Amino acid sequence: MTHSALESSPADAGRSAPNPAPGQPENVTAPPARKPRRSFLPYGLILPAAILEILIHIGPMLLGIWIAFISLTQLNLTNWLNAPFVGLQNFINGLNPESTIGQAFFSTVGRTLGYTILVVGFSWILGMAGAVFLSSNFKGRAILRTFFLIPYALPAYVGTIAWAFMFNQRDGAVNQILVDTFHLFGDERPFWLLGQNSFGAMIVVNIWQLWPFAFLMLMAALQNVPNDVYEAAAIDGASLWQQFRTITLPMVRPANGVLLMVMSLWTFNQFNIPFVLFGASSPKEATLVSPLIYQNSFGSWNFGLGGAMSVLLLIALFIASAFYIRMVLPKGADND
Amino acid sequence: MKNPLKVLSALTAVASLALGLSACGGGGAAASSDTITYWASDQGNSLDDTAAKLKPSLDRFTEKTGVKVNLEVISWTDLYNRILTAVTSGDGPDVLNIGNTWAVTLQETGAFEPVEGALLEAVGGKDRFLKTSWSTGGAAGKTPTSVPLYGLAYNMYYNTKLFKEAGIEKAPVTWEEFVADAKKLTKDTNGDGKPDQWGFTAAGASVSANSHQAFIRGLQNGGTLFDKDGKPTFDSDPQVAGVKQFIDLMANDKVMSPSDAEISQGSQKVDNVINGKAAMMFDQSPLKNFDARGFKDWAVAPIPMLAAGATGDAGTQSHVAGINLSVFKNSKNKENAIKLAGFLTSDAEQVALNKSYSSLPVVTGASSDAAFQTPEVKAKNDALANHSVPMPLIAKEGQMETLTGTAIKNLFAKAATGTVSDADIKAALKDANNQMAAAQ
Description:
By secondary structure, chain A is mostly helical.
């Protein structure tokens, strides 16, 4: 019988972790199951967490879904419990590809997908390169490791505000270096936060912020790859690239699976970076889904429409994640 | 071993429940009978400056009535959302400032006390107020839900030193003269072949400032943002022509630095005029910045019109700008909240406050004070009294500002990074128009 990832309890994972060799008949030696007794203890222990979870996560989420089906505008905001139920009207308005709003929504979803692939892809490559680089022993490794983690340790807003200053066309550091020092772009100062460039600028900031996380996770995963495997491969004449492809990658595959999913979800829902770089309304070329929902909800006080877009996103991300978990993530202890 | 754990878990559970309950009941405890909460908008050079300038007035209020005021100054970028949250939750301040163009949108929420009965009495009736300012309090034909507090209007401010250098003796009156002068004032001062002094500067990325210009330039050209049935007409020919005049300053006339497309704060354009990087700007009250920087080489003139001496809509130079004051309907301390509204609009406080914020008194009784007889204030007064029209008094005003202002912001971005054709302007406004129509 195979365990699915969802079924394996934290206790199982904890026990099998120190001994990752595959095929060990470890579970056989598990202590015999005790007769279950009715006890208040476990429920009492999780009760506070459960209550907070409901208050902080589940409640607002259900409320958001409800808002998608009502017509919530400034007229009935103070009395929102009595806002008229409009069924699927919000979805029809927001999804009609003929309408300006619908067109904006679909092109934004496409743009956000491309954005996610670029950001996660580059962050992963940088994180992997950094992790492999720092897995060998050399002087100054600890300093570099700390240095690499700085963008992740800085508050997201602080880092992004600094980037916004740097990208400023007239007196930002980016143009001072590229134009004043290296005389690129024919001495014309490009705008980094306007037009087409804004998309690229946003990607750079997001990669800068995200890659240390990939680096951290992959470095942890690499610690688990035993050194003798590499030694054996080297003796057999495997090149460094071959070692990377046939040893490192397969060994960190489980960590990779989770890492890519988490990073993709974060990036797809990115809000902070565009909000700090561009303010409440992003340039057309750089509008992502979350800022678009914000603009529809708070710019126009049309919360029903914003809610409908959020629900659609929730469903899409839920399906994508479920599919991904079944297809890609390791299935329980078998693959460990 | 087990029992203490059991007790512990039970305790945790009880504690979390109790915490949840107390959190729910928290709202009521804070309100005490002799303290009211007041949200003020940022009228000074900074949040601290605004608070410092309000303090003497609020101290006088406390002395007179025994009511303490819990003041919070909120920046313009946050104010609208803060009000929105307060309106939604019903848990807000007792008294608050609003941008007067939001008055109708907020009136529709029903969250504010109508100005009638005790509140109307406390502010001394509507005849004390400037007519134009009072008209922004709410939709036509409805009881207003806000009273004017500070009056503002657009004027043109210019750097007299740059004018002298360019040999321009008097400020331009018509738009044509304005563009011609701006061209004379745009020049290369350091010999690198590119202009570094510009004729005009504006905050091209400020959504609200852009929407004001869409409104004003549209009216001057004979357009309106809405037709008489309330349908949006952002992309009508006169409206497009008006927006084009504004965008052309950067795109075709080249009298506005492309860098302005990135400016989102009005104070940055004021800096440009102070530093001599630009000669002219349209602004509502730059004096506090001028004074703070010790800048003296400035003068003021009316916003240029298409024809000299234009009247009616064609003579529009400003919207009826300003800050209004509302009393929150859910206030647990309404009596004292109304007292504060009355106090802040009294003649004496109007003089003191508008003097320190370099805005205009909204009550006629205060206008005669010596502080408001300077040419600058008179120019502003003339614009407000004779050349201003309220922004459309409709429930979706906030959205109209967002849509038209963002369209112009994007057009400036396009002008800065390439070229803008007439078709681009038409298309951008048409897009905004469709979104406005869809939301109505």
